Amino acid sequence: MKLKNLFSILSLTSLILTSCQSETAKTKNSTLINGDFETVSLNGWTVLDGNAYKDGDFNIGIASGDFYAQGNAYLTTSVSATGSSGTLRSSDFKVTGNGKIGYLIGGGNNTEEHYLELCSSDTDQVLMTFYNTKPLQSDEMFRQVVDASKYIDQYCYIKIVEKNIDKDSYNYFNLDDFIIGFEGEAETPGLLGKANRYIKDNKVSVDKSLAPSYHLYPPVGWMNDPNGFIYYKGEYHVFYQFYPYSTAWGTMHWGHATSKDLITWEDHGAALAPDESYDKGGVFSGGAIEVNDDLYLLYTAVTDAQRQAIAYSSDGINFEKYSNNPVMDTDLLPSTNRTGDFRDPTIFSRNGYYYVICGGKYNSKGGNLMLFKSKYVLGPYSYVGEVQGSDITDGGIFECPDIDTLGDKDILISSPQTVPTDLINDKFQNVHSVCYEVGNLNTSSGKFEYATDGMQMEEFDKGFDFYAAQMTKASDGRLIMLAWMSMWDRNYPSSANNYTGSVTLPRELSLVGNHIYQKPITEIKNYYKNHKDYGTITTSEQILEGANSKTSRISFEIGVDSLDTTSKSGVKLFVNDEGTEYVGIYYNKETSEVVFDRSYSGTPFSANGKEVIGQRYCKVNPADGKIKLEIFMDRTSVECFINDGYYTMTGLAYPTSFTSNISLYGTVNTTFENVEYDEIEVN
Asked: For the whole model, what pTM was predicted?
């Protein structure tokens, strides 16, 4: 017998057995009668044979919300322990509209025992047979849709068939809400379907007053690391760590969005959910690769340990998990590494092999990156060697590795956690950082070999909010990078608006010597409007007329030779009318630093009980005697490109004022050259 918490039961005591050539068949109703069972009866339905629908074996239940039924009642064929069989026939109906038939289904998924048939009312011929396609048997119903458009304008009926051969615990159907000419979409069953139903029902609750205009953010809930960033079949795909049910980190899913230009995005809800025994603790970060026109996602499956698993798709939207997951188990790890910190694979192919770099953590202090290889994308994989390792991470792990090429060199990036702050060398002001290395990966030994002796890891961004970066090649060969525009261990004011997290403006990477430059993706220029060229401005403080910080950019140059040795000159963003609230970005000549100051930025936010609005510092050598700044604002974000992208600084701020003035300022009169402004408008 079934059910957990349900129902009031109506016993049907006077059902009449009929043949397939029944009186109801002669009537030829144009519409399906009682397709939603809200009559709490079998009105419109006829028992054809068997005992599955007789007294005590057939139930009309009052729906429990757990099962996602429609209305107050649904059909359930909850049978006795001895098992029952039988066939139930609907009224006749005419196949109309688009010809699609939508219905809710749950319960058993044994296709030999439980199935539905679409039959011709004139001939009783079986036209179509369809089943419960849910991978796991569950009382929970989900929406299936069958395409009967080839039978439009024909009279048909539906048969529900129960055979109950094996008499298992799910030898019944739950059915509800048959709709002829259904115009909606089928739903994915299980935890993935549950997540996408939740997104659909709750994304309207997101208050978009703080939400970015031209940055990717979640439809609802929590976002962190971008995953599987790839150009596939004419579109950019970005997956990301996602928890739809809360604005705080939870059991990870993969969210998914696509874009033609990396500026405007189409949301596809959740692509992966933690619905298997090997990933029930979460589907953590990973990468993507195209193989023979199919898209493969390699991700970390979390239970008592961390292992790597694969899902694949032929359309880039609907994914199936590999039946022999996990493809990389903890037995591949060297004895020096913890099984509970083995994650964030990036996958690529070279020389006829598939290679995977994973982040890891030593049994003692420090972390590392490890290389694995296989002849086939689905494995088996073997351990090659350690890409790099360090004890400087103070107990942390190397997370989120990625690798790609610029020219003849490999660019290796990773996110080492808890690296001690190095203010002398202007490094690691954040608890967690994104770093890059330039050289070549030795696929025989696994070792990453630096381009020159004495090289070290370099930080990608000197700001507050930049983590877990990923790269991909555009169709024209550009190397594009984006990152999670947030940071760990913080509370975010946007959570009150029912979302948390976003992705940076994508950046084009170039290599000069062994230094990586970042510049805003070229496509952003297609969204500029209301351009203003202010030319040269000399001032100690001046509000720019006609400019605002909401969704815009500003650029200018400062000649440093004419500045007083103690001068601080730059720009204030998100300035309120009183001038008491702002984000400052300025050049401090005394220290040769560009400073990102959000001490007065509005709504405070904190980590571990301490405010983290503060300041970040970036030592900068003038280029041709000038400091050049280009700054992008998007409601709550600021991204600053210094000296044509030699350095960047990224950070969030949450203004409390509806005014968002921009002002140039300096502790002494400062000459700002080539001052330009553009609004950025994305429909």
From this structure: 0.85
